[in-house]
Amino acid sequence: MLFNSYHFILAFLPITAAVYFLLCRGAPLVWSQLWLMLASLLFYSVWNPVYLPLMLGSIGFNFAVSRGIHARLHQPPAKALLLLGIAGNLLLLGYFKYADFFIGNLNAALGSHIPLLHIVLPLGISFFTFTQIAFLVDTWQQRASRPSIVNYALFVSYFPHLLAGPILHHREMMPQFEDARNHRLDSENLARGAFLFAVGLAKKVILADGFAEIADTGFQQPGKWAFLDAWIVALSYTLQLYFDFSGYTDMAIGISLIFNIRLPFNFDSPYRATSIQEFWRRWHITLSRFLRAYIYVPLGGNRASRVATARNVMVTFLLGGLWHGAGWTFVIWGVLHGVAMVIQQAWRKFAVPLPVWLAWLLTFTFVNVAWVFFRAASVADAWTLLEGMAGSRGMGTLSASPLEIATLLLGLWLVVSGANSNSIAQARPLTARNMVFAAVLLAAGVLSLGQTSTFIYFNF
């Protein structure tokens, strides 16, 4: 089920919220959590019920491993169980996400003809797998409580974040369900949640889907475009990706706020960053947090030599690239960001600050170039479009319509200078003007739901 669908907006969400708050008032706590868990499983099953047993099996496996770790804390078997749990999660993710990538590269290297498995990637598998790996590590480090099976299953399957994050920690979300103050419908949270949902819906169906038409056409024929059009194609995808993913996140946080549950922000105007490090502090914040806490720091972080630190950065970004997809384009995208981060760290030794405008321009240009690999169907296609962006086919003439150019300029202004939805939603009080604005956006978004489109990060 999609957030940007009539079924969700007019039926699933209001019914789920109404029953949840009724149960919170008149039944034991476990019943409201059980209802929300079952609703979340239904939400997931609408996509493809075939993969529901897979997610339930993953939940059962990780719950059992976490119980085993709890029972054996401070004993050698606890670490063995942790490693077993991590290995099990990675094997599951590896089979569904990387099996065909591995077979294809093996065939290319050896000249063999092993048939591809053509596995369909289950929706949300990267997110619910990473969430559970973090839970197992937190359990071993005694930073997670010992939940009931219903509590744990709700933590993993909670529908606002299930398919595309944010990536959560049990300790930051589940205690909120236990807090009696959150068991009544809160008008202020309802207003703020509705505001964020309206903003996210507009980002997705009005802006992101509009930029998608230009980006999809452009990347289907990467060799067709000269300098001007090639940059329009690249910038359109840059904006599509941001408005699509941040739109989903706004909706997820807004929906959760209706239930009085606060999810962490996942975006903070990333295209305003003046360095790659700042970009990653603003883009997909919970993934950056995960990669830092569970890969970069265990590798040694920046506690060793500069060479070791550079290695740790490169490994972290390489794995971050692979997490996004099984393809050499994602590997190159991750490596590019790793190299940029290492260069930035080396530049600091010179202590020569760049003008803010130049630092922003370099960062934004680099991010655009790297996104080409992220989006392209192949490395060859990426290089072909980049050649056009470099002017190898001349300047060309703009094939985009005046409306498309105006929308592109509007999008660039919004990401660089526009108001941040996080800040507006947290403002006290949430003004009547902002609520009227949200109502207009919601109406415009609902009226634009004629052709349903999925979110980009559902593919990861």
Give me the secondary-structure topology:
Blueprint: H1 6-26, H2 29-45, H3 52-71, H4 76-110, H5 125-140, H6 149-157, H7 159-162, H8 170-178, H9 187-220, H10 227-258, H11 276-282, H12 285-299, H13 306-324, H14 328-347, H15 356-375, H16 379-389, H17 402-417, H18 421-426, H19 432-447
Helix tally? Answer: 19
Note the gap between the termini.
17 Å
Please identify the structural class as seen in this structure: mainly alpha
Strand content range: under 5%
Quick one: how many beta strands?
0
Describe the structure.
The protein has 460 residues and is an all-alpha fold. It folds into 2 domains: 6-184, no CATH class; 188-459, no CATH class. Helices cover 71% and strands 0% of the residues. α4 (76-110) packs antiparallel against α5 and α13 (306-324) runs antiparallel to α14 (328-347). The longest helix has 35 residues, at 76-110. The model has no long low-confidence stretch (mean pLDDT 91).
Summarize the structure.
Helix content is 71%, strand content 0%. It is an all-alpha fold and 460 residues long.
Please give a handful of descriptors for the protein shown.
19 helices; mainly alpha; globular; single chain; 71% helix; 0% strand; 2 domains; 460 residues
